[in-house]
From TrEMBL:
<dbReference type="GO" id="GO:0016020">
    <property type="term" value="C:membrane"/>
</dbReference>
<dbReference type="GO" id="GO:0015108">
    <property type="term" value="F:chloride transmembrane transporter activity"/>
</dbReference>
<feature type="transmembrane region" description="Helical">
    <location>
        <begin position="342"/>
        <end position="360"/>
    </location>
</feature>
<feature type="transmembrane region" description="Helical">
    <location>
        <begin position="256"/>
        <end position="274"/>
    </location>
</feature>
<feature type="transmembrane region" description="Helical">
    <location>
        <begin position="147"/>
        <end position="171"/>
    </location>
</feature>
<feature type="transmembrane region" description="Helical">
    <location>
        <begin position="183"/>
        <end position="203"/>
    </location>
</feature>
<protein>
    <submittedName>
        <fullName>Voltage-gated chloride channel</fullName>
    </submittedName>
</protein>
<feature type="transmembrane region" description="Helical">
    <location>
        <begin position="224"/>
        <end position="244"/>
    </location>
</feature>
<feature type="transmembrane region" description="Helical">
    <location>
        <begin position="372"/>
        <end position="394"/>
    </location>
</feature>
<feature type="transmembrane region" description="Helical">
    <location>
        <begin position="53"/>
        <end position="72"/>
    </location>
</feature>
<keyword id="KW-1133">Transmembrane helix</keyword>
<keyword id="KW-0472">Membrane</keyword>
<dbReference type="InterPro" id="IPR001807">
    <property type="entry name" value="ClC"/>
</dbReference>
<feature type="transmembrane region" description="Helical">
    <location>
        <begin position="309"/>
        <end position="330"/>
    </location>
</feature>
<keyword id="KW-0812">Transmembrane</keyword>
<dbReference type="InterPro" id="IPR050368">
    <property type="entry name" value="ClC-type_chloride_channel"/>
</dbReference>
<feature type="transmembrane region" description="Helical">
    <location>
        <begin position="21"/>
        <end position="41"/>
    </location>
</feature>
Length: 454
């Protein structure tokens, strides 16, 4: 009896402890996210007063590059990747200087027309504040790591106004195929508290509802599988575009300032000769698609290119907002090609399905669909998200994500390693016999061809 009493008291104390810690983190992140969003809104309004402000993109990217390079190198790139790396390799230790530098650099990049997202900075700001709070309390490494994960969850929850999906994203994105259940409760608390704090401080979240939700039938089920495949392929292309951008800019033996000028000039050319819709956050295009408008057929690919250039050349920002744009455009294009009347619905499902594939977070993406568009979309979004997740395979927009499961017994890989360290050629050589012989042989030939070209 005494043992049971001790067990229950201990568990109750743990609940109280983590509810308290997570609530404080939620308040901190809610305030930090609000400061970032209001600073972004104000700065964007100032830029909008300047005709053709995107022509200043070379200067914008130079300023962002120098800020990060001089004051906080850990704030480089898209913030979520750095946070995942810190959780796995540094037990969540993040320099507090990252918070203001990431905030300012991202505001400058996005307001000036750089193609990036606003969630990465919020995740990094949230994680940085949580890490600072852990240092203040002198917590051990295990508790610090938990608090930092809470900060990630609260950052996503507050920036998109999806407290449950944000909390799930924070615990699902770290390891492919696994969740940190010991951090699930405090992540929910931090996400919900952060969401309400941001709302109390004046942040509004417009949640559009999909115009028409089709009934679940045999044909609609098939369509969602096809859409999931379509979005999975688009997610793969985006991951490759991002890696290609970083590779190409990395090979240039130029000073970072020169790279930033070159990248900014390329973005100016896109804005001038293609369309300005592919610069900045692209929220107007997302809203248009979710209201049933048909986007240009090249919207998916042009946003990939613009984002790859922005982040590859030194811009600061996240990747989830571009993923939303690309996914919305991919679903929009799918509906147009197959003459589907429900353009808004396919655009909405495409938005979350591409997130599920690119970030390997099908559960968080499915829940996000319900929080954004209503529970009626759940069956369709769930199927598309899972298919997209499987199609992407062992790739991720976050290379530091740890592989926790094998998506297919026919693709045997060693789990427990970052996805960025996996060798695609080894995957082709390990195709199981369940695949047709000509597929295995063709994969091996391709692998040998790559080695010869090297």
């Amino acid at each position: 009896m005494n043992r049971r009493i001790v067990e229950q008291v201990t568990l109750l104390a743990s609940v109280v402890k983590w509810a308290s810690y997570a609530s404080i983190v939620g308040v901190l992140v809610g305030g930090g996210t609000t400061a970032f969003l209001k600073a972004l809104s104000w700065t964007s309004a100032q830029y909008d007063k300047v005709p053709d402000y995107y022509l200043l993109l070379p200067v914008t990217l130079v300023v962002s590059t120098l800020l990060v390079r001089w004051f906080a190198p850990d704030a480089a790139g898209h913030g979520t990747e750095k946070v995942i790396e810190a959780v796995h390799q540094k037990m969540g230790r993040i320099p507090l200087a990252v918070v203001p530098v990431k905030l300012v650099a991202t505001v400058i990049t996005l307001a000036g027309g750089g193609s990036a997202g606003k969630e990465g900075p919020c995740a990094q700001i949230g994680a940085g504040l949580a890490s600072g709070f852990a240092s203040l309390l002198r917590l051990n490494d295990v508790d610090r790591r938990k608090l930092v994960i809470c900060g990630i969850s609260a950052g996503f929850a507050t920036v998109f106004g999806t407290p449950i999906a944000g909390a799930l994203f924070g615990v699902e994105v770290l390891v492919l195929g696994q969740m940190f259940y010991d951090v699930l409760f405090p992540s929910f608390v931090a996400g919900i508290v952060g969401f309400h704090v941001a709302g109390m401080l004046g942040v509004s979240y417009p949640h559009p509802a999909a115009k028409i939700i089709p009934a679940v039938t045999g044909w609609s089920f098939t369509e969602m599988i096809l859409l999931g495949i379509w979005c999975g392929i688009a997610a793969l292309l985006f991951i490759e575009f991002m890696q290609l951008g970083h590779r190409l800019f990395g090979r240039l033996s130029w000073h970072p300032v020169v790279k930033a000028i070159f990248g900014g000039a390329l973005l100016v050319l896109i804005g001038r000769f293609v369309s300005q819709r592919y610069l900045g956050l692209g929220l107007d295009s997302i809203d248009a698609a979710l209201n049933g408008q048909v986007l240009p057929f090249d919207a998916t690919f042009m946003k990939m290119i613009a984002t790859s250039i922005t982040l590859g050349s030194g811009g600061s920002g996240g990747v989830v907002t571009p993923i939303f744009f690309i996914g919305t455009a991919a679903g929009n294009l799918f509906a147009s090609l197959f003459h589907e009347p429900l353009v808004a619905t396919f655009s909405a499902i495409g938005m979350v399905a591409l997130l599920a594939g690119a970030a390997n977070t099908p559960i968080a993406a499915s829940v996000m669909a319900m929080e954004l568009f209503g529970a009626g979309i759940a069956p369709h979004a769930g199927v598309a998200c899972m298919v997209s997740f499987l199609i992407v395979g062992y790739r991720s927009i976050y290379p530091s994500q740890i592989l926790g499961i094998q998506k297919s017994t026919s693709l045997k890989v060693e789990t427990g390693r970052p996805l960025g360290q996996l060798n695609p050629e080894n995957l082709q050589d390990r195709l199981a016999i369940s695949f047709p012989a000509f597929v295995v042989k063709g994969a091996k030939v391709l692998g040998k061809g790559r080695k010869i070209r090297k």
